[in-house]
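Changelog-adjacent note: as of this version, every example in the card shows the full chain rather than a window. The one below runs 244 residues end to end.
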Amino acid sequence: MKILQLNVWMGKVEGELKRFLENNNFDVICMQEVMSSENCQVHLARLCFDAEAIKQATGMPYAYFSPNWSSDIANGSFELGNMILSRIPFRSTMNTFVNGEYTEHTILEKMCSNNLNVQVVELENGVVIANHHGFWRSQPLGDEDTVKAFKHLAEIIQPYQDKPFVLCGDLNVRHEAPAMRELDFLRDLTYENGVKNTLSGLKFNGEVPCDHIMPNDKLEAKNFMVHDGYASDHLGISAEIEIK
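Full-length structure tokens:
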């Protein structure tokens, strides 16, 4: 099973993102910063490569979107959140907030930062996948609040460790961050493969390996790779995983 992790940067790089998703044959994709609307989708689609466009580009029949907040637009609203897409049916889905709570009528210049959920899905093949956009601080080592958020994340996903499990996400920290010690019960493929950077340079300069694929000991992982290109301000990372 081939899995991709990608922060899509609110679908700002429409053409590159569309081509990347059309030309790569993944089984599961975990995304962050996905834009979606139920009541003004046509309007939103003129502004970004939104959730509906992403679903169409991937051709994946199963999708689970979990919003962090919503904002008013064009007599309707749009939401930003995480999305898991799959070629394998979902057996169950859930989401809960790691930090903050869902907010409506958000004004972007005044928005509450770090309203962050984690999604957890179990596939029909028995693999459990968690998708999370991590607590953000300007320094990739985070701070005490980052540690608190990651401790809560660990508490949420610990009950799934009796099953084949993988956590994907733009966690906003590097492996050496103190907050990552809360997740030491998982492997970090980004760290194991010596990845120095998962940012494309479109937004931030510098090298930060902040995107992670983290399986537990019930999964084998191989063929990890970082995908070059400019589909987002982040680089996609992928791996092939299978149950031991």
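Structural remarks: DSSP finds five helices and eleven strands in the chain.
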